[in-house]
Write a structure and sequence with these properties.
The chain is mostly helical and 40 residues long. The protein is 92% helix and 0% strand. The protein is built from two helices and no strands. The N and C termini lie far apart (37 Å).
């Protein structure tokens, strides 16, 4: 349900997609860093 709204945002505002994608990638990198730290 949120995916469709996001897709519409991508089509209407390319710069918003770039920002959201950059934000998501940073979250993924942070999550990986946290998981690696937790596992030792």
């Amino acid at each position: 349900m949120a995916g469709e709204g996001f897709a519409e945002t991508v089509q209407r505002h390319g710069f918003e997609y770039r920002s959201a994608r950059d934000f998501r990638d940073r979250n993924i990198l942070e999550l990986i860093r946290t998981l690696r730290g937790a596992s030792g």
